[in-house]
Design a protein that fits this description.
The complex is a heterodimer of chains A (737) and B (316). With 737 residues, chain A is of the alpha+beta class. Chain A has 18 helices and 30 strands. In chain A, α10 runs parallel beside α18, α13 packs parallel to α14 and α17 crosses α18. Chain B has 316 residues and is of the alpha+beta class. In chain B, 28% of the residues lie in helices and 18% in strands. Chain B has twelve helices and eleven strands. In chain B, α5 packs antiparallel against α9 and α11 packs across α12. The N and C termini of chain B lie far apart (52 Å). Classes of the chains: A alpha+beta (737), B alpha+beta (316). Chain A: This is Xanthine dehydrogenase YagR molybdenum-binding subunit. Chain A: Its EC number is 1.17.1.4. Chain A: Keywords: Oxidoreductase. Chain A: It holds the Pfam family MoCoBD_2. Chain A: GO terms for molecular function: xanthine dehydrogenase activity.
Chain lengths: 737, 316
């Protein structure tokens, strides 16, 4: 189904199932421990052996020698894989560095070997008996230093987006700001580590893994192993969190496949927690310079945002300036990305890549600018709202309720009670402050397909390679199929995460919900047509006058059970959604506003969040319950980003030092006292027949800045370097009395 | 994890004797720290002696009005004990500030005293660490040191001791009771129990090879106000940036011990004497000679400010 004109009224608009708060249909499996995760799939293939990864202990250089004899002789060992015996390997399109290193080493904890043994313990013990001699090479590990030395690269500046004359307008602006903000490297640290079971049947390979994007994983696995794509099958029905860390083929999958080939039997591999930070991808650190000029009337006349990040060869920059191109008005604009070469592990997508760190900076800058203008921060944002793409004023937003989000949030949070003068509110030993920030994240359209089958009991089975990374995909897909076919959720079966199913949008970039359900919609439209035809209801175009409801198909006075159409053989339909240039004609984005109250311990400067509110406008909310869970999870991640999460770089040897969950702190329950989420009524007919957009990343965008701004309101101390830890506040705190 | 042999000891003295017979042996109680370290091959004992069955899990009053805490009393039980909550509130609060409910259910009194540092370089076997591998060097010096020691460190090691409980034990003048392989017992004042790193950071306590902790004894209650303030980046389940344990009497006298600043729980007798003069005077004595890194220099003002807040709270 081609989607290139705004959606008209369609069966989804009935909202009998879609749009209702619905508990996750996979919930009982999760809560009873019976949802099968990759590493636990003992049943899928017999005789599984265990692989354990050996990781590089240098960041850059080469392997001079690698001695495997002692490991091979260790109890239970079946095989050892290194670059020496792995055969010729390609590199996936989405990997910056090879997943099996050697002889060249590209980053710390790059895999250099896999030991396969009868038991996990034997494999782990033998992995310690692999002896690698390295020749260490100099590397670049310090982003701040790289930024100082790289200078202006005209090639990179060519890509800058400019409107008007930023320099002149900024010069002329009566009120201006020129500040630099930093965000650190962050780790996804999802609950379930990367894990895979691999089995070969002749020249065919099956992997049971944990991956957000089945089609990407299959393609890159085939490419890396230099085998035909159609001989690779990827299965990933349940995923214990991904946050972008499982968008790509990673070492667990490749090494399980190589280990299984070498050992001649199925092999399972999980990455140990301490390898997660340096072996896989992470959100790269940024240094962001923001300049804003405004008139005394509070209107922005000039805005510039430049961001520096680093990556390996073939790696990309963190796109931290993207939201600044679209969020606020202003006639003169400049945005640009600067990429430095660093020999740290690969930087890549983590939840709301670009916007999350970008807004952490921009929305502090907006708070600072409002203060300089003596305008309320909420009003300052409203004053500079734009209903069109500022780089291309002919191009409107498909929907843009930022102002409504801000106003609703301000009212519900009690913003008017905020004391605009910082460090004035005290509650016992706590300095109390409130802050806010705008939330913004684009809505991305990408094709997505599904297959639906109807059987003679009236059960509708949906198959698509869409994944559920803890987001609720199973449930919203079931709701979609139920709405379209006029059956209850008890008559819908959803099967996901298998490359044998039609290719979906996958889970990433908050594009999963809208696109994957739109794909199911398309397949269901086809199935409805097949049903109608079978039952002789196909007179009118678009099935006008034919209703699918309560397990019946009705037209005029005639009503036939849906199951009857299936017959013994069943009916099946496959289709997908594909988009024309609709996203070019209007800008599709999601909007929100975050409000936060913090307490800062007057003595120790410990920051604790007291309450949070998010107001979101993100198209039709397919399931308010799972959408709320998405947003509060994202807000929690925002607390981590604001207050504690930082991969500490050892710039001497080039690795992330705090590479476990004792050293890399993420919020615990005690850090998250009270969260509220409001969804504004919105349908976006430009987004898809579902009229939905995504919320999973919107909920994170802006949270960090709202917290930093609340800390400023509490203390009068402006911290521009995340995370906002107490050591950055202590100097300015009032004397202890 | 390396292969190891395992036995259950029949008595404390037998356990100590077994340890002496098996070089490289380790006692195992709750295992909350040791097992993790064995998986990473940071600890590689050839032999484990399980002491869980030794009936060392009781608490009893001592003749002089103190409390004798068996080595195997679990952290949860110790923190919840009515006598501890009433008479040694500092200890109860310190315990509850540490780890998680699940870990406290397993962790023991003796094991808590013996837990290893959380220095990230100690945990990464690819990095030099004099504590893990004597003579290999210290990657933490000049590296990521925000969490590490500001006082009492050496050119070999700037690790901190992670225990909260031990800070309270130090402020309360506890005594560590042990049995040696020859069956002899001794009582070690807690102040003499943990060592500074010097050039042997791998030797962390004054225990002799094979010596087994059997109990920790608290002297009679001190009265006063007991406050344990643990400062950290998140609200729970994190090691201290600094921790202040204090017992403050109505006349302003009292005791102070610190966590998170040194290779051992930190207390200075002369600093206690300064308590009536306030936080600055105490901190000046407590942290005299401190040598922080640029990354952890904030701990010095943080100690003073935290102590100031604790003393204000004690005053009520």
């Amino acid at each position: 189904m081609k989607f290139d004109t705004p959606a008209a009224t369609n069966p989804i608009d009935q909202l009998k199932v879609v749009g209702k708060p619905t508990s996750r249909i996979d919930g009982p499996l999760k809560t009873t421990g019976t949802a099968p995760y990759a590493y636990e799939r003992h049943d899928v293939v017999p005789n599984q052996a265990y692989g354990y990864v050996v990781a590089s202990t240098i960041a850059k250089g080469r392997i001079a020698s690698i001695a495997v004899e002692e490991a091979k002789a260790a109890p239970g060992v079946l095989a050892v894989v290194t670059h020496g015996n792995a055969g010729k390997l390609g590199k996936g399109d989405r990997n910056a560095a090879p997943l099996l290193g050697g002889p060249e080493i590209d980053h710390y904890h790059q895999a250099v070997a896999l030991v396969v043994a009868e038991s996990f313990e034997q494999a782990r013990a033998a992995a310690q008996r692999i002896h690698v001699e390295y020749e260490r090479a100099e590397g670049a590990f310090d982003l701040a230093h790289a930024r100082e030395t790289m200078g202006d690269d005209p090639e990179q500046k060519k890509e800058d987006k400019t409107v008007g004359d930023f320099a002149a307008a900024f010069d002329a602006a009566p009120v201006k700001l020129d500040e630099t903000y930093t965000t650190p490297d962050q780790s996804h640290m999802m609950m379930e580590p990367h894990a895979t079971i691999a089995a070969w049947q002749g020249d065919r390979l099956t992997v049971w893994t944990s991956n957000q994007m089945i089609a990407w994983a299959a393609a890159d696995l085939a490419k890396t192993l230099e085998m035909p794509r159609e001989k690779v099958r990827v299965i990933s029905p349940f995923i214990g969190g991904g946050f972008g860390g499982k968008l790509f083929l990673r070492a667990d999958t490749l090494l399980a496949a190589l280990g299984a080939r070498e050992a001649g039997r199925p092999v399972k591999v999980a990455l140990p927690r301490p390898m997660m930070a340096n072996n896989t991808t992470h959100r790269p650190a940024t240094i962001q310079r923001i300049r804003i000029g405004a008139g005394q009337d509070g209107r922005i006349t000039a805005i510039a945002h430049e961001s520096w990040s680093g990556n390996l060869e073939d790696g990309k920059p963190e796109t931290a300036v993207d939201q600044t191109r679209l969020l606020y008005a202003g006639a003169n604009r400049l945005t640009g990305l600067r990429l430095a070469h660093l020999d740290l592990p690969e930087g890549n997508a983590m939840r709301a890549p670009g916007e999350a760190p970008g807004l952490m900076a921009l929305e502090i800058a907006m708070d600072e600018m409002a203060e300089r203008l003596k305008v309320d921060p909420v009003e300052f944002r409203i004053l500079n709202d734009t209903q069109v793409d500022p780089e291309n004023p002919e191009r409107p937003f498909s929907q843009r309720q930022l102002v409504q989000c801000l106003r609703t949030g301000a009212e519900r949070f009690g913003w008017s009670k905020r004391n605009a003068e910082p460090a004035r509110v005290r509650d016992g030993r706590w300095l109390v402050g409130i802050g806010m920030a705008a939330a913004f994240r684009n809505n991305l359209l990408t094709k997505s397909a599904a297959r639906v089958r109807l059987d003679n009991r009236g059960v509708v089975t949906v198959e698509t390679d869409m994944t559920d990374i803890g987001t609720g995909s199973y449930t919203i897909i079931a709701q979609t199929a139920a709405e379209m076919m006029g059956v209850g959720l008890d008559k819908v079966v959803v099967r996901l995460g298998d490359s044998g199913y039609p290719a979906s949008a996958g889970s990433g970039g908050q594009w999963g919900a809208n696109n994957s359900t739109a794909g199911v919609y398309a397949a269901c439209v086809k199935l409805r047509e097949a049903v109608a035809q079978k039952l002789g209801f196909n007179s009118a175009p678009d099935l006008a006058g034919v209703q699918f409801a309560d397990g019946q198909v009705r037209s005029g006075n005639r009503s036939v059970p849906l199951a009857q159409a299936a017959g013994e053989a069943g009916l099946s339909a496959e289709d997908g959604i594909e988009y024309g240039d609709i996203a070019k004609r209007a800008q599709q984005s999601t909007f929100g506003a975050h409000f936060v109250e913090v307490g800062v311990d007057a003595a120790t400067a410990e920051v604790r969040v007291r309450r949070m509110l998010a107001v979101c406008a993100a198209g039709r909310i397919l399931n308010p319950l799972s959408a709320r869970s998405q947003v509060i999870g994202a807000m929690t991640m925002g607390v981590g980003a604001a207050l504690m999460e930082e991969l500490a770089v050892d710039t001497r040897t080039g690795f992330f030092v705090n590479h476990d969950l004792a050293g890399y702190e993420v919020p615990v329950h005690a850090d998250i006292p009270h969260q509220e989420v409001i969804f504004l009524d919105e349908t976006d007919p430009m987004s898809s027949p579902m009229k939905a957009k995504g919320v999973g990343e919107l909920g994170l965008c802006g949270v960090g800045a709202a917290i930093a701004n609340a800390v400023y309101n509490a203390t009068g101390l402006r911290v521009r370097d995340y995370p906002v830890t107490l050591d950055k506040l202590l100097d300015g705190m009032p004397p202890v009395t | 994890m390396r292969p190891f042999t395992y036995e259950r000891a029949g008595s404390p003295a037998e356990a100590a004797a077994a340890a002496a017979r098996n070089p490289g042996a380790k006692f195992i109680a709750g295992g909350t720290n040791l097992l993790d370290l064995m998986k990473l091959e940071i600890e590689t004992p050839a032999h484990l002696i399980d002491v869980n069955g030794l009936s060392l899990d009781r608490m009893e009053a001592t003749p002089d009005g103190g409390l004798r805490i068996g080595a195997l009393v679990r952290n949860t039980d110790l923190a919840a004990d009515e006598r501890v909550r009433r008479d040694y509130g500092l200890l109860s609060r310190a315990l509850l500030a540490g780890a998680s409910g699940q870990l406290r259910n397993k962790a023991t009194t003796a094991g808590n005293l013996l837990q290893r540092t959380r220095c990230p370089y100690f945990y990464d076997t690819a990095q030099p660490c004099n504590k893990r591998q004597p003579g290999s060097g210290c990657a933490a010096i000049g590296g990521f040191s925000r969490q590490l020691a500001v006082i009492g460190g050496s050119e070999s090691c700037i690790a901190t001791h992670p225990s909260d409980m031990a800070v309270a034990m130090l402020a309360l003048d506890a005594t560590v009771e042990t049995v040696r392989p020859d069956g002899a017992t001794r009582a070690i004042p807690i102040a003499d129990f943990h060592r500074l790193p010097g050039d042997t950071p791998h030797i962390e306590t004054s225990l002799e090879p094979g010596e087994l902790i059997t109990a920790v004894t608290l002297p009679q209650p001190l009265g006063g106000t007991h406050i344990y303030r643990k400062v950290r980046d998140r609200a729970s389940y994190a090691f201290a940036l600094v921790a202040v344990g204090a017992v403050v009497q109505p006349d302003g006298s009292g005791r102070v011990a610190l966590g998170g600043v040194a290779h051992k729980p930190w207390r200075v007798a002369e600093a206690d004497a300064e308590l009536p003069k306030g936080a600055r005077a105490v901190t000046t004595r407590l942290l005299a000679g401190a040598a922080p890194t640029p990354e952890n220099a904030f701990k010095l003002p943080l100690v003073e400010r935290t102590l100031g807040s604790v003393l204000a709270e004690a005053k009520g």
